[in-house]
């Protein structure tokens, strides 16, 4: 019975009851001798009408509950039919219980296959769309022999890549079937392929530059570094991943002039020049932020400037030597004394560069003189 119809009947019962009450009251007023009989009749009438009213009220509640269930079923059906994923539900006996339109569209199955209820038949039809039919059949048979959640990826003949997620269904702790959810991941796989190619290109570039580039987290652990670590520190990149950054510098704690610490504190890039036993290094650190503007790590770059420093020192040395020679020449011109000028030159050069060979040569010259 429809909700509006029930409400209409309830309204009619109320009106009839009210009119009957007025009629009985008037009759009792006119015939005072029969008021007991009429009162009893009125009571029976009200009792019967109230029962009818309760019945209608119960029917209304049942109808509302039924309408709610039907609306929920219709909504669930609408959701399943409009989703981008394909669904197929098998019972415990491997029979098809439920499918949606996306499932048939995803595998390009003809319209008449919607009436197939035998699981083996639908599997065979699906296998014909696969690039590797036997692999699909083997993995599909396996899912019915286990209660585990399974995930498989298949490539179709038309180039699509489909991911299948298989879930066991339970009722009262008893397995009643399996639900297969099919998702078209073709675009995702293409993006992953492009990202992988891009990563390979980036790795190729980063691993062939002379600078050591590393990503260091907030705990000073190296999360990634390029292969130049092998050239500078003699340690392969894979050996120092997840190790503390200061260990590759031969330290047991953070380096005193660590630019990473400074970058963490100031949230600004930091650069230092450091001299080791046989190397001159420029170490810079740039902080890395998350979406909340919190520092979560730093990109550290280490440049070996040893050759540059050696060239600079050689140029400085040559400049000092030229200055010393010029001064000795001036001494020679002033005194016209070659021997004293030459000895003074050696003395100036020896004091300038602190080379024992010059002192030795000066002593040898004194003996020969």
What descriptive keywords fit this protein?
369 residues; alpha+beta; elongated; 54% helix; 5-stranded antiparallel β-sheet
**Low-confidence spans: pLDDT under 50, at least 5 residues?**
356-362
User: What's the order of the H and E elements?
Assistant: HHEEHHHEEEHEEHHHEEEHHH
How big a fraction of the residues is strand?
15-25%
Sum up the overall morphology in one term.
elongated
Strand order of the largest sheet: 2-1-5-4-3
Largest sheet, in brief, is: 5 strands, antiparallel
Q: What is the distance, rounded to the nearest whole angstrom, between the alpha carbons of the first and last residues?
A: 136 Å
Return Rg in Å: 47 Å
Number of separate strands: 10
Number of helices: 12
- Report helical residue fraction: 40-55%
Global structural class? alpha+beta
Mean pLDDT: 76
What does this molecule look like?
The chain is of the alpha+beta class. Helices cover 54% and strands 20% of the residues. The strands form 2 sheets. The protein has a 5-stranded antiparallel β-sheet with strand order 2-1-5-4-3, sandwiched between helices. Strands 7-6-10-9-8 form a 5-stranded antiparallel β-sheet, with helices on both faces.
Short description:
The chain is of the alpha+beta class. The chain is built from 12 helices and 10 strands. The strands form 2 sheets. The protein has a 5-stranded antiparallel beta sheet, with helices on both faces.
């Amino acid at each position: 019975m429809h909700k509006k119809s029930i409400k209409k009947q309830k309204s009619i019962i109320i009106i009839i009851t009210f009119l009957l009450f007025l009629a009985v009251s008037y009759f009792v007023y006119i015939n005072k001798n029969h008021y007991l009989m009429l009162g009893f009749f009125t009571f029976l009438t009200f009792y019967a009408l109230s029962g009818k009213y309760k019945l209608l009220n119960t029917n209304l509640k049942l109808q509302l509950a039924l309408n709610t269930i039907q609306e929920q079923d219709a909504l669930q059906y609408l959701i399943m039919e409009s989703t981008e994923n394909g669904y197929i539900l098998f019972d415990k006996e491997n029979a098809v219980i439920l499918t949606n339109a996306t499932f048939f569209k995803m595998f390009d199955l003809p319209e008449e296959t919607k009436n197939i209820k035998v699981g083996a038949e639908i599997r065979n039809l699906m296998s014909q769309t696969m690039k590797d039919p036997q692999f699909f059949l083997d993995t599909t048979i396996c899912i019915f022999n286990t209660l585990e959640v399974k995930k498989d990826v298949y490539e179709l003949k038309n180039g699509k890549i489909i991911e299948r997620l298989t879930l066991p269904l339970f009722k009262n702790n008893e397995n009643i079937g399996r639900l297969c959810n099919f998702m078209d991941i073709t675009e995702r796989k293409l993006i992953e392929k492009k990202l992988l190619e891009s990563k390979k290109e980036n790795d190729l570039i980063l691993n062939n530059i002379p600078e050591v580039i590393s990503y260091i987290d907030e705990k000073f652990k190296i999360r990634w570094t390029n292969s130049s670590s092998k050239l500078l520190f003699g340690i392969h990149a894979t050996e120092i991943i997840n190790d503390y950054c200061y260990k590759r510098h031969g330290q047991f704690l953070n380096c005193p002039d660590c630019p990473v610490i400074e970058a963490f504190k100031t949230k600004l890039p930091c650069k230092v020049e450091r001299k080791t036993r046989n190397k001159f290094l420029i170490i810079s650190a740039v902080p890395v932020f998350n979406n909340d503007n919190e520092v979560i790590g730093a990109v550290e770059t280490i440049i070996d400037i040893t050759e540059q420093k050696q060239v600079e020192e050689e140029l400085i040395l040559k400049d000092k030597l030229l200055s010393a020679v010029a001064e000795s020449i001036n001494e020679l011109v002033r005194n016209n004394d070659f021997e004293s000028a030459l000895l003074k030159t050696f003395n100036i050069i020896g004091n300038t560069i602190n080379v024992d060979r010059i002192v030795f040569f000066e002593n040898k010259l004194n003996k020969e003189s």
